[in-house]
Design a protein that fits this description.
By secondary structure, the protein is mainly α. The chain starts with a helix and ends with a helix. The mean pLDDT is 89.
Amino acid sequence: VGLTGQDWKLILIAASRGGHWKVCVGTLPFLAPYVKETHPMYARESFPSLSSSSSSGGLSRPSRPSLARLNRKYERIARALTAAILCFEARSQYAWAIRAIDDWIEWSGRRPRKEAVAAACRVLAKRYRRHEVVTLVTK
C-alpha cells in the first residue's frame, strides 16, 4: 500500500475521532510491523556480543538501533493505540479493547500507555467485567 507507520497512526486517530471503531479494528494490524520494530529485543543493548564483535574487522553486520532510539520511535507510534481504545470505549466495544491491548503487548513487548489502559478499564467497568479489569491491570 506504501504507507508508513505514521500514516497508519494518523488514519487510526482520524477514525477514532470520527467514532469509526470498525476502521480502528481494521487499521491496527497494519501498524503491527512498525510496532514490532520497536520491540526492546531488537535493541543493541540486547546483544552485547554483537557490539564487541563489530570492532573485530570481520564481516560487518547491520548495526542495531539503541534502546533510546527504539523508545523514541515507540512513543511516536503509541498514540495510535490510545486513540483506538478511546474509540472502543466510546462505542462500548470492550472485547476489541482487550484484544487490541493484548496484541499491542505482544507486538511491542511493552505495557501500553496509561491512558489506553484506563480507557479499557472504564469500558470494562461499564459492562461489570471486574475480573477482566484486574487481569488487564496486572499485565
